[in-house]
Amino acid sequence: MSQKTTDAFPGATNTAEGMLYNGAVFAPVIEQCEGCSRVKEFEGAAYCNSYPMPKAKWSMGNCNFATHLKVDSKAQAKVNPLKASKRAAKGGR
Fold this sequence. Notes:
Blueprint: E1 13-14, E2 19-21, E3 24-26, E4 39-42, E5 45-48, H1 54-58, H2 73-76, H3 81-90
Antiparallel strand pairs: 1-2, 2-3, 4-5
């Protein structure tokens, strides 16, 4: 094991499983992570500095840490039809 200090991961070491940093083993990033500002280089490989297992974050859909994705909050918001009709009747939004 070689120890190399970087700005993103000070005190990290490379192991057979991945990068060991603060007691957690970080796996290399996957293709969907490309373009994210949280991805940092360590000894020739790219790692996420927010989550140790990027593949698991993307398994159920988009990663909630991804800075390169734009989320449309209006499309995800559920509207109660009863409240919406009352609001429209009052002249509100």
